[in-house]
Automatic annotation (TrEMBL):
The organism's place on the tree of life at top rank: Bacteria
InterPro entries given in the database record: Aminotrans_3, Aminotrans_3_PPA_site, Dat, Ectoine_EctB, PyrdxlP-dep_Trfase, PyrdxlP-dep_Trfase_major, PyrdxlP-dep_Trfase_small
Keyword Iron in annotation: no
Gene behind this protein: ectB
Class of the enzyme per the UniProt entry, highest EC level: transferase
Leader peptide range in chain numbering: none
Listed name of the protein: Diaminobutyrate--2-oxoglutarate transaminase
NCBIfam families on file: dat, ectoine_ectB, PRK09264.1
The protein's Enzyme Commission number: 2.6.1.76
Keywords: Aminotransferase, Pyridoxal phosphate, Transferase
Pfam family, one: Aminotran_3
């Protein structure tokens, strides 16, 4: 009999880590075709901040479709588009004193990054972009050029140019002052660094290993960009929409990036949607200069609007996310103390958390052990050495406790036999 692996490309990844066929999902639980339940600490790689099939969002989506409302509209104005734009402005931008115009660049995060890079080069007339070690910004060519992972970059098949990597916060374990290298190159006529159009950065590097930039580091980077007339692009695709606490991951630092990239959980329901937010003075596009067939997916506008109204009319979700994140931090710190000989490291902010293991092999064994015990959790980092937690922000305290207990047992099972 032909199997699914016979029919689908070898490029598959998650189905290798979790070798079952999933059928249903509700909240923080997925069920395979045999009915076995798995607690989900993956949440669609951060696309499901409000859980699977969130009932509030599902109801507005079904009502919208049942009434034969517009589904596909390119960039034509629709009532769904208008309601999203007005709600995003009134509930997200205005309370934070942020003045951005919204670009709908296409359905995914890489589209948001490509639009940001393209616009930064158009605005400045420069080609070069500064990125950071262990960054991840997407799998299209422009996004790959500012991504750090060698395996992903290697898939491009051509040279990835016009980008220069710089050390991310604490890359040298505190041995080198912040921005020493970048600042010297920017100010040295003999440094060989092409004048950058932009710097692109993540407040927390998810795929890079849950590396967290300090607020003061982000403020220093913002000031350095302003000093040299460089646009600051903040990639908030995985860490935005409340993942670290505030709606935007950069709120804690008090900075205002020139361009912000959002996707993943902006639709609230796992429907494809992406935004590139730009300061009004940067909005110099010609009509149709950047477009795409699926930049007007109205069902995503509908669920995004309801997600914002439901979860961002007050600070309850933000406070809950911070509290739950601290609970994970405490449990991970206890694991670090329990196994000092293995040099584990607890990392992260909010509900983006990581536990760095001695190697990618050991981290993979832990996540495989967790899967056997009914938990979906992935790895990240340059060598997949970090156990990466991205549970839904709506996860219950009991579900969080149960998942952490599974991780503790999986870590104990692997480290005691390694």
């Amino acid at each position: 009999m032909t199997t699914l692996t016979d029919l689908e490309s070898e490029v598959r990844s998650y189905s290798r880590s979790w070798p079952t066929v999933f059928d249903r999902a509700v909240g923080s639980t997925m069920y395979d075709h045999d009915g076995k339940a798995y607690l989900d600490f993956f949440a669609g790689a951060g696309a499901l901040n409000y859980g699977h099939n969130n009932a509030v969002l599902k109801n507005v989506l079904l009502d919208y479709l049942r009434d034969d409302r517009v589904v596909h509209s390119l960039d034509m104005f629709t009532t769904a588009r208008e309601e999203f734009l007005r709600t995003f402005s009134s509930h997200i931008l205005q309370p934070r004193d942020l003045d951005y115009k919204v670009v709908f660049p296409g359905p995914g995060g890489a589209n948001a990054v490509e639009a940001a890079l393209k616009l930064a080069r158009k605005v400045t007339g420069r080609e070069s972009v500064v990125n950071f070690t262990n960054a991840f910004h997407g799998m299209t060519l422009g996004a790959l050029s500012v991504t750090g992972n060698a395996m992903k970059r290697g898939g491009a098949g051509i040279p990835l140019v016009h980008a220069t990597p710089m050390p991310y916060d604490d890359y040298f374990d505190g041995d080198v002052p912040d921005f020493l290298y970048l600042e010297r190159l920017l100010e040295d006529a003999g440094g060989g660094l092409n004048e950058p159009a932009a710097v692109i950065v993540e407040s927390v590097q998810g795929e890079g290993g849950i590396n967290t930039a300090r607020a003061e580091w982000l403020r220093g980077l913002s000031a350095l960009c302003k000093k040299h007339g460089i646009l600051l692009i903040l990639d908030d695709i995985q860490m935005g929409c409340g993942r670290t606490g505030g709606f935007f991951s950069f709120e804690e630092a008090g900075i205002v990036p020139d361009i912000v990239c959002l996707s993943k959980s902006i639709s609230g329901y796992g429907l494809p949607m992406a935004l590139t937010l730009v300061k009004p003075e940067l909005d110099i596009w010609e009509p149709g200069e950047h477009n795409g067939t699926f930049r007007g997916f109205n069902p995503a506008f509908v669920t995004a609007t309801e997600a914002i109204r439901t979860y961002w009319s007050d600070d309850a979700l933000e406070r809950s996310t911070v509290t739950k994140g601290l609970a994970i931090e405490a449990r991970f710190n206890a694991l670090v103390a329990r196994y000092p000989e293995h040099h584990l490291v607890a990392k992260g902010r909010g509900l983006a958390r990581g536990l760095e293991m001695p190697s990618g092999e050991i981290a993979g064994q832990v996540t495989a052990e967790a899967f056997e015990r009914g938990l979906l959790v992935e790895t990240s980092g340059p060598d997949d050495e970090v156990i990466k937690l991205l549970p839904a922000l709506t996860i219950t305290d009991s579900e969080l406790d149960r998942g952490l207990s599974i991780i503790e047992k999986a870590v104990a099972a692997v480290l005691t036999r390694s």
